[in-house]
Amino acid sequence: MKAELIEYDAFGLGEMVREREIKPSELVEMTIERIERVNPKLNSVIYKMYDEASKNAEKWDKEISTGKKIEALFSGIPFLLKDICAEYEGTPYCSGAILLKDNVSEWDTELVKRHKAAGLIVVGKTNTPEFGILPTTEPVLFGPTRNPWDLNITAGGSSGGSAAAVAAGIVPMAHGNDGGGSIRIPASCCGIFGLKPTRARNPLGPRYGDIGSGIVVEHALTRTVRDSAALLDATSGPDIGDPYYAPPKKRPYLEEIRHEVGHLKIGYLTSVPKGWSSNTKVHPDCEKAVKDVAQLCESLGHNVVDVNPEELSYANLFTAFSVMYISITGSSLTYIEKELGTKITEDQMEPLTWLFYKNAVRRTASDYLLALEECQLFSRKIAQWFHKGGYDLLLTPTMSIPPVKIGSFSAENIGKSFQLMSQMSAFTSIFNITGQPAMSVPLYWNADNLPIGLQFAARFGDEATLFRLAAQLEQERPWIDRKPSIHCSH
Fold first, then answer.
1. Which of 207, 252, 302, 315 lies 20 to 30 A from 408 at CA?
2. What are the pLDDT digits (tens) for 474-484?
3. How far apart are alpha carbons 195 and 222 in whole angstroms?
């Protein structure tokens, strides 16, 4: 029975629990066994919450044994939290940072409260780069997370720990967040599904109203489309006191995946428009992936259009976003200084983080607001492009290059490191700027058997179209049976 359960997603396991076919305590025990067996190879889980998880599973066992109807979709389902933004009272919370290695959360964030209300049981926390800055998960504090498809390759960042755990079958889904591609990049690197919701779809409170004027959003990495849809149903919606919120959905996302997709107009890019990055060229593997999936979409009856990148170019965008991204780091570290009551020194953080911090503190409020204005002007341009052209979606490679080797980022070669950041996030950061929902779908593997994710972005507030298309693509070209060399089923 336990061997069979590896094929189930979280939603399917939730159905089994509600039908009394399996106990939450059995699922937690199984997840702990998987972590102990597989995690030493991957280093995806950096804090184990086994006692807490077992106690919560026992509570769910008792609740279910009463015979009353269980409403929560994910009743007693094991889950992992990324160790950034989402806080769980009484557990370590350090964001991969040397500076915060002894920090402990004093409350649950609103999103974690909603995870618990949905029935999820947190079994551990996952690895992240220091403060989530890099698109690879290699913190000095915990060491690198390795990709289950190739242990020498990055799992991506900053949700790399979560992505590797899901791809390896430790859990069917795990928490992630995204400030420049941090859900979609790891999803692409690890061959799983990752959706970045619309700005403010999920809450960030109580610590934050927003982060970086709405650049950062929260959700998850999943094996299946329906898990992502069902979880977003469970967690989305404004919190009391939020500064703004996303447009209300028309119906539950779980219903959307059962609706007909219709005939969509999908534009696609095989090169990076000017201004989106630092002179980034698209790798041939990624270009082939886009053309392959464009043909797939066309075969499904969609109107697929090769977009002239000049239509979407914007000269000052990369510079403006860089100012905003660096400023997020600066504001976070300034906040920590305030909380600690002391100045941060160079030996308390990694070299690349220190460079970001020193760059940030030289910026002025005017620098930030001018950069924000540029990003908002670009957002209007993109919105108008979708509207005037009648486009439903834009298709791009998730990353402009295949996943890179661990150790590719270093303070000794700053130029190379920043170029890699640009190459990995050239297509993803755009939709953190605009706030539009975007997803990475695992539809292509290159000759080295490494996953190449495909990104689809929709109009602001339109996760529904993404979920409908994702469900169609999942049915047409299933990926759930593709398992990496490091997997719990082996």
1. 315
2. 999 999 999 99
3. 9
All structural domains of the chain with their residue ranges? 4-476
pLDDT in tens, 437-483: 999 999 999 999 999 999 999 999 999 999 999 999 999 999 999 99
Closest among 118, 201, 190 to 466, alpha carbons compared: 201
Q: Is 182 a catalytic residue?
A: yes
Phi, psi of 68 (to 5 degrees): -75, 160
* Burial (CB count within 10 angstroms: exposed 0-12, middle 13-18, buried 19+), residue 267: buried
4 burial level (CB within 10 Å; 0-12, 13-18, 19+): exposed
* Residue (of 207, 254, 201, 213) closest to 231 by Cα position: 254
CATH class of 4-476: alpha beta
Report the chain's mean pLDDT, rounded to a whole number.
96
* Residues 490, 108: Cα–Cα separation, whole Å: 36
Q: What is the spatial distance between Cα 280 and Cα 70, in angstroms, rounded to a whole number?
A: 51
CA 156 to CA 137: how far, in whole Å?
6
**Beta-bridge partners for 147:** 150
Secondary structure of residue 174 in the 3-state scheme: strand
The residues pairing with 441 across neighbouring beta strands, listed in sequence order, are 454
Q: Which of 158, 213, 429, 440 is catalytic?
A: 158
Find out whether 166 and 148 touch, Cβ atoms under 8 Å: no
Q: Any catalytic annotation for residue 82? A: yes
A 10 A CB-CB count for 288 gives 17
The SS3 call for residue 368 is helix
The set of residues, in sequence order, having a beta carbon less than 8 Å from that of 115 and lying 6+ positions away, is: 79, 81, 86, 122, 175, 234, 235
Q: Catalytic one among 25, 75, 82, 213?
A: 82
Which among 44, 95, 162, 182 is annotated as catalytic? Answer: 182
Per the CB < 8 A criterion, the answer to whether 237 and 117 are in contact is no
Length, in residues, of the chain: 490
